[in-house]
């Protein structure tokens, strides 16, 4: 034990550091301080896991870490390999930039006295996700699933409006059903095997599978635990809670819930598939068939639901349902290639979806805090970086080459070609249909947010300077709302009024102001309150760059995933 | 018949789990949902605790008996799991009750359907206020 390299402590340090950091926040009771602590911890966690990842990939090793030096049947264990380290690194990276990009909205949406609690919950969330990734013990996984649930619910309700609390209670109920099922499965598993550590469980389960009389209990156990995790990660028929929760929360919360929290459970499921149940046994018991079918249905139905939405965040949330369908479809392909594709898609969705949610938040900030398509018309001219990011995210989700979504679709189709004659046509058709549907609901939004005003000779929106464009555009937005509020007719009418009155910007601004303050205090708009802060720009640029990075240099990432899955 | 007389703990646990699960899933009243959640968790604890217990044996605490053997003791791990589980379910119940309290103060009802209806109406009214 004494010759263990020091870096093998890093997973444990990450979990402990995030927990302690979270606990320290109530001592300061200050949102800004809490944010700095939170950011520092996320950076530390990201760096530690990155170092671990580089080391494990180059040496090709994996390790089990005994908590408190108690050997196997008694102690609790952490297990690390390249796969886990890669996921933990990406999670920390995405979480850091998702908070950075949405920090303007966090301070605006969350009541001032409770802001430090928001960052506390973020810390708990990161801690529980890292624990879910690294744990080698099923019961520890259950405990952290519950911590994850509570923290996730807390960040949804942080906005403290009626809508978010209703969304939270629905999310909470579905999550509790999921974790209840997981716990029941775990109790049954412990009953028939007498073990909780993944390492000791697998030989016993394989032994049971050989004598065929345990098929029924094993099927029940696998089905119940898998179902529990599927409910929590919003696989299609269990997705009803997702659009409300992801659509109404503040941008950072939506970004992190969609990009990371859903994936934490899937990674746990993948780990269990490899390290406890073994893929062969799951195939024999038809669990993967069920996952596969639900995944395919989810791919199509998620997109169809998204097509019907007129609310940009709810649409993006339904798109997440479809993407989760992709991941489960890859898992259900029952092959190494399918699993690799699913893992890659976890990464590509984890960096794309937060960007979409943050960009949607940024666009809404300059459109009177409305997420409806009709109010977002031309919003990209008022917040260019968000507009660009949204388009890139949309293209990536559709699967255009050069973006992160393309390699995952490529790998999914490769996986389909390697699978049996029943799955191959289904996957290829579903991929084609789903891609077309993605394009159908993303492209109109992209066109809508970049739509020019139709007055000839009106040069507005061509401004090369981001700053001046955003400032010039703002009164117009206010006036659009103003004109609409006065009953001037349709939106396009109102927008043209706004455009005509641009010369008279000051007047429009003040007029709009008074009215907005009269009607609804929530719709404040001042100069300098567009939300295009340096932090937002940096986060958007980093997300765009990483999207390109993953889309172009997918080879090394895929090698790392392959190595990680082999060692799992 | 032997199945029922020998395994009544397990049967009770599964029945309770079903009752709790359906309560959590189907009841409209939020408090009843939370009660359902607690019944569901308790069923799992019953199953676990029963598995750890062996009649005629004692808890594995080293006393005056200097030659301990595994034959004398019950399995302590399920008890540990139950304790951890209870802690988890207490915190989850507290959180759900706090949320329910919030919702009750806002909408003056515990019926989830009515709450959904009211929040939808509230949203529509807000939109109307903006357009008029």
List the helices and strands and how they pair.
The complex is a heterodimer of chains A (568) and B (132).
Chain A: H1 10-24, H2 31-59, E1 63-66, E2 77-80, H3 82-109, H4 115-134, H5 138-157, H6 162-193, H7 198-210, H8 215-232, H9 242-248, H10 251-277, H11 279-284, H12 287-308, H13 312-332, H14 336-365, H15 379-382, H16 384-398, H17 405-417, H18 423-449, H19 466-485, H20 491-500, H21 505-519, H22 534-552, H23 554-567
Antiparallel strand pairs in A: 1-2
Helix pairs in contact in A: 1-2, 1-4, 2-3, 2-4, 3-4, 3-10, 3-14, 3-22, 3-23, 4-5, 4-10, 5-6, 5-10, 6-8, 6-9, 7-10, 8-10, 9-10, 9-13, 10-13, 10-14, 12-13, 12-18, 13-14, 13-18, 14-16, 14-17, 14-22, 14-23, 16-18, 16-22, 17-18, 19-20, 19-21
Chain B: H1 2-6, H2 8-26, H3 30-52, H4 77-107, H5 112-131
Task: Describe what you observe in this structure.
The complex is a heterodimer of chains A (568) and B (132). Chain A is an all-alpha fold and 568 residues long. In chain A, 75% of the residues lie in helices and 1% in strands. In chain A, strands 1-2 form a two-stranded antiparallel ribbon. In chain A, α4 packs antiparallel against α5 and α14 (336-365) packs antiparallel against α22 (534-552). The longest helix of chain A is centred in the first third of the chain and has 32 residues, at 162-193. By secondary structure, chain B is mainly alpha-helical. Chain B has one domain: Helix Hairpins. Helices cover 74% and strands 0% of the residues of chain B. Chain B has helices at 2-6, 8-26, 30-52, 77-107, 112-131. Chain B is elongated and about 85 Å long. The mean pLDDT of chain B is 86. Chains A and B meet through α5, α6 and α19 of A and α2, α3, α4 and α5 of B.
């Amino acid at each position: 034990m004494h010759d263990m390299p020091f870096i093998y402590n890093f997973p444990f340090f990450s979990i402990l550091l995030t927990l302690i950091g979270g606990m320290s926040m109530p001592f300061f009771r200050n949102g800004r301080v809490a944010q700095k602590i939170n950011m520092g911890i996320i950076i530390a966690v990201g760096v530690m896991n990155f170092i671990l990842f580089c080391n494990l990939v180059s040496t090709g090793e994996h390790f089990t870490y005994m908590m408190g030096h108690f050997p196997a049947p008694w102690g609790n264990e952490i297990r690390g390999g390249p796969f886990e380290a890669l996921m933990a690194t990406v999670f920390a990276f995405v979480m850091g930039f998702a908070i950075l990009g949405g920090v303007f909205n966090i301070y605006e949406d969350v009541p001032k006295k409770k802001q430090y609690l928001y960052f506390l919950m973020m810390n708990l969330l990161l801690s529980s996700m890292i624990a879910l990734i690294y744990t080698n013990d099923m019961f520890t996984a259950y405990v952290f699933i519950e911590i994850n649930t509570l923290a996730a619910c807390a960040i949804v309700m942080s906005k403290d409006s009626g809508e978010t609390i209703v969304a939270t209670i629905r999310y909470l109920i579905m999550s509790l059903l999921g974790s209840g099922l997981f716990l029941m499965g775990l109790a049954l598993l412990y009953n028939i095997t007498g073990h909780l550590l993944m390492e000791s469980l697998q030989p016993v389960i394989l032994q049971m599978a050989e004598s065929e009389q345990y098929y029924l209990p094993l099927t029940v156990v696998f089905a119940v635990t898998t179902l529990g995790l599927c409910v929590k990660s919003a696989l299609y028929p269990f997705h009803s809670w997702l659009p409300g929760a992801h659509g109404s929360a503040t941008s950072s919360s939506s970004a992190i819930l969609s990009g990371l929290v859903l994936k934490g459970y899937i990674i746990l499921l993948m780990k269990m598939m490899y390290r406890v149940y073994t893929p062969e046994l799951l195939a024999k018991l038809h669990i993967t068939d069920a996952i596969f079918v639900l995944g395919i249905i989810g791919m199509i139905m998620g997109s169809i639901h998204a097509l019907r939405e007129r609310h940009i965040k709810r649409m993006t949330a339904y798109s997440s349902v479809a993407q989760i369908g992709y991941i489960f479809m890859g898992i259900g392909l029952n092959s190494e290639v399918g699993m690799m594709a699913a893992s890659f898609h976890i990464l590509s969705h984890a960096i794309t979806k937060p960007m979409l949610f943050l960009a949607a938040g940024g666009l809404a900030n300059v459109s009177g805090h409305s997420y409806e398509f009709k109010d977002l018309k031309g919003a990209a001219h008022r917040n260019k970086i968000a507009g660009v990011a949204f388009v890139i995210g949309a293209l990536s989700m559709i699967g255009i080459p050069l973006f992160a979504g393309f390699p995952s679709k490529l790998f999914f189709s490769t996986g389909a070609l390697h699978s049996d004659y029943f799955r191959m046509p289904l996957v290829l058709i579903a991929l084609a249909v789903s891609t077309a549907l993605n394009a159908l609901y993303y492209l109109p939004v992209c066109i809508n947010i970049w739509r020019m005003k139709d007055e000839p000779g009106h040069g507005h929106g061509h401004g090369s300077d981001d700053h001046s464009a955003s400032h010039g555009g703002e009164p117009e937005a206010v006036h659009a709302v103003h004109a609409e509020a006065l009953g001037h007719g349709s939106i396009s009418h109102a927008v043209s009024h706004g455009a005509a009155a641009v010369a008279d910007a000051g007047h429009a601004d003040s007029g709009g102001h008074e009215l907005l303050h009269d009607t609804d205090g929530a719709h404040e708009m001042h100069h300098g309150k567009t939300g295009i802060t340096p932090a937002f720009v940096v986060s958007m640029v980093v997300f765009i760059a990483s999207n390109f990075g993953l889309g172009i240099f997918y080879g090394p990432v895929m090698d790392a995933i392959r190595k990680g899955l082999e060692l799992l | 018949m032997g199945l029922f007389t020998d395994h009544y703990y397990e049967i009770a646990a599964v029945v309770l789990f079903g009752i709790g699960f359906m309560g959590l899933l189907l009841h409209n009243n939020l408090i009843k949902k939370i009660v359902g959640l607690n019944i569901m968790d308790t069923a799992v604890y019953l199953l676990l605790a029963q598995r750890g217990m062996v009649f005629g044996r004692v808890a594995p605490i080293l006393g005056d008996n200097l030659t301990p053997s595994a034959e004398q003791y019950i399995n302590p791990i399920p008890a540990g799991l139950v304790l951890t589980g209870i802690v988890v379910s207490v915190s989850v119940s507290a959180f759900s009750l706090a949320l329910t309290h919030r919702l009750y103060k806002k909408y003056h009802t515990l019926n989830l359907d009515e709450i959904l209806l009211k929040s939808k109406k509230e949203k529509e009214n807000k939109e109307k206020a903006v357009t008029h």
